[in-house]
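Record pair follows.
FIRST:
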Amino acid sequence: MNSQWIKQHQPTLYRILQQSIAKSRLSHAFLLIGDKDLIDIAQFMSGVIYTHSLQQEEIEDVIHHIELNQLVDVKVLDGFQTSIKKEEVIQLQHQLSQSATGATNRKVVIIHHCDNASTQALNSLLKMIEEPVGENYFILTTNNVNQVLPTIVSRCINIQCENINQDEIINEIEEQLGMNRLSAYYLSTLTSQINRVESLANELNIETYSMVVYDFFHDMQEDVDVAIVNLQLLVNDRESVKAIFQMMIYGLSYKVFSIENSIAVQEVCLQTISKINRSVYVPLLIDQFAYQLKEVIYV
């Protein structure tokens, strides 16, 4: 992610950072609210704050070291996969009490998906934000601000990240990278940065998931039971469920697939995806989907 991308697609954020650098007056806590690219934006902000500059080369160097976990003055707590614990925040507090190593004497903390943290962790974090020590800065992210403690929200500069037109991103992915429509759609929900799409697709196995969806609806035309059995064999974790069912919903909504009772099938898919959470038991979820699907297909 670079300054030009931020300036073009997140102008409010860029203006805040530009003015803060010019006036040498930075808020000590920010809350980024949005659907995608949050960790990338947070890393970019860390580079700006840490270097006190909008110079791209300096920022890229910081981001590179953050990604490799090689920068002791920038710490990341990530609640994407697992809940952030109080012990992690206490350890962070100890690390922040140590002297900074950089020229600006600053330390930056990124707390990604701050809504996925224990109550004790959030209370400890709140205390750190309320009583900042020295040149310590906090960048929090969430895609659900309603799940963040109101007291934390009120003590941060809230920045609503702007969404880029999704259809434009989908078309660009299809045209530039030659991916199918379902893959392009799902990737557009994860990032707005075309230069990140290919690596994400490989990392998350997106095109394999899209073929599962195409095969599922093809098999449904022949035998619903076979389609369900094949799906049960291939879907075995939360991330694959999320990707596959979002693609199903998109495919049904935009007539990528033409099947009988498509509205009822789409509703079953929506009900299934609404049950996905960090503790979901995937085999049971797929069994429930199969039961509901047969009810609407064999009506």
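SECOND:
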Amino acid sequence: MERLPPLNALVSFCSAAKHQSFTKAAQELNLTHGAVSRAVKQLEHHFGMALFERRNRRVYLNEQGIFFYDKMQKILSDIQTAAEDLKQFNQYRKILISCEPSLAMRWLMSRLTTLQEVLGHTDIQILTAGGPVDLAAHSIDIAIRRADFKWSKEYWVTPLTPEWIGPVCNPSYLEKIPPHEWVALHTRTRPQAWSDWTSISFNEQKFATDQYFDHFYFSLQAAVAGMGVAIAPSQLVYDDLAQGALVAPFGFEKTDTEYVALTLKNPKSDEVLNDCLSWLMHESQKTASHF
């Protein structure tokens, strides 16, 4: 860095070289003629050679000046481009959200347009995964998780909403199938969901048979299709309940866990991150309301 020429003088030199005039350079840079002249002389002193020929009150780039100006044009253009890109950095940034698969498919995806309006030009990317997460290893900005595991003490934790669960089924299923003939729809990703609900609701509902699916998403789709009664967090079925595709015959019960958002840094230090988390908190609390 010690070998660099005086940087302020470079701008004056390039303007003078472009116009072949110290006077026009001074006008362009809002400087005096003398200031431009001194800047060029400072640069020439640094290199130990003249960069202009001075004849009849005019200046002309000499061979060395032409060589140096060609190089400096590209460098200053790159600096200008970098400066403009930096100004746009926060306006066109990316945010990667990791979300549990069923929650992403049945809740988050249908609300992405609204989130996009909140975050403006931010590029929102969704990664589906559940359980423990390494935010740094996967460059994840926010991980939405059910708080049923231990996470790193380095993570910032933003509570989103308590969890409410309850049985749901197609309205026609409720009308046509008597309770003692109901089929219980289970999910292998959370096999204890029905027993959790039974213990907190004190409802000893008996079922004719059981059917198992790999994920909540499939068991809930089966419920929509009229195949039986599924157990579900209220967030996952909020839209279906609102649209009449499902009903909750026993309502919802609050569990002893909650949904949280995990981040590597303090949300208050990042405007986009903070806006995203505020939206997630608002939407989560709104859609966790039981019917």
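COMMENT: The longest helix spans residues 63-87.
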